[in-house]
Amino acid sequence: MAPRDANWIDGLRGIASFMVVCGHLCTSFVPWLHQPAGSAEMPPHLFQLPFFRLAVGGRSAVALFFLVTGYVNSIGPIGKSRAGNHDAAFNGIARSALARSGRLILPTMTATLVTWFMANVNAYHMTKHIDAQWIRQGWHRQEPTLWEAFTSLFRAQTETWTIGWNEYDGTQWTLHLFLEGAMLVYATMLATILVRPKARFVVYAALYFYFWQLGKNITVGAIKGLNIVTGMFVAELHNHYKDAATSVLPAPIPALMILCGMFMAGYPQDSEKNARWSHVMSNIMHGLTNEKTDIRRYWDHLGAATVLLGIFFSRNARRVLTSPVFNFLGRVSFPVYLLHNTFMKTVLTWMIYLPSAMNPPKNEKGEQQDLQRGSTTHMLIAIAIFYYILYRTAALWVKHVDPICANIVNAATKWAYGEPQQKENRPILGNGSAEKDVLPS
């Protein structure tokens, strides 16, 4: 795998990617963990308690991705603006805005091609008959003709970026929002490059309040806008404090911020009234938002944003996130995001349900029933192997697929700029600098 400098924001992205996979596994096999308790009278399970329930908190990880997107895409233009290098800032925004679509779309199209191929060689056949509802709803039929197969592929490739849905991989629904979020960053930077930092803070505040009240009946404001704007705000703080950021606050305060953020990010996805702590949180947020707002996304945002700020001001947290393990998780996070659903519908399903599939259960009428899972030990071993295969494949993706996508994007942008073509063999996510793209993994 190509070398890449360690940095704390990359490590944070790796954690978010791992949380998404954990969240989808729990949604598939133990969906009751999304509740704070089985009922108001029942005691909670360990992983239903605050902090522990982050192991199933994939929703807060999505908020982290948007925060990181706002941060990394604005940090360069803000730095050039503060230095008075406005021409370089405008040039950087123009180049990034042109290349961003390719950097996000090409790997996504490749992942869609993979899951389309798996569906049309009937690799998802077993998925249709399992009792894990989340995986089962991702089943896609084998198209009866080549024409229908290629038509469905074209539809999936385009609808991912038009209506936000991919019939072969539903987890790609966030990707068009990430692209829109990046363009929101570029538009904001373009409008504020020439203003003073204090004026830019006013713009952030205005955008934040706008997206806060946008939550009625939809979640785009909370999912995209609030996190993107907060990410730009943290990038502004980075350029203001620079290396002194970890010395601004007394040591206990960043740690308390991280703990408070983790508590808020653990707001349950379902049945918040089953526990007093989540019921209180529900009442508080209902008083701060519009009617019919999905308050879960607001707590996801506030929790993830507070964690990000705590890490930003914490030297120890940054040191942990730059360790080799987290650096690796960050490097492979985008292909992990793109591939994990396909692997859950194939490798993981095969391992967990194969014994039952060899002797499928039937009712009195001879009709096939849902396949039965293996034992708990069987499932834990299967999940461990699944994680190894997923991350090993993601590492190979970064080594072999990302450079191809990067070369295509570079060639296209150089053609657009009228620059001479020169082959560059580097990963799609850059060389680890502070300004590299951090994509949703």
From TrEMBL:
Membrane-spanning residues: 12-32, 52-72, 104-124, 173-195, 207-229, 249-267, 337-358, 379-398
Keyword Transmembrane helix: yes
InterPro entries in the record: Acyl_transf_3_dom, Acyltransferase_3
Record domain Acyltransferase: where: 7-354
GO molecular function: acyltransferase activity, transferring groups other than amino-acyl groups
Keyword vocabulary terms for this entry: Membrane, Transmembrane, Transmembrane helix
Domain of life: Eukaryota
Record's keyword annotation contains Membrane: yes
One Pfam family of this chain: Acyl_transf_3
Protein name listed in UniProt: Acyltransferase 3 domain-containing protein
Species assigned in the record: Decorospora gaudefroyi
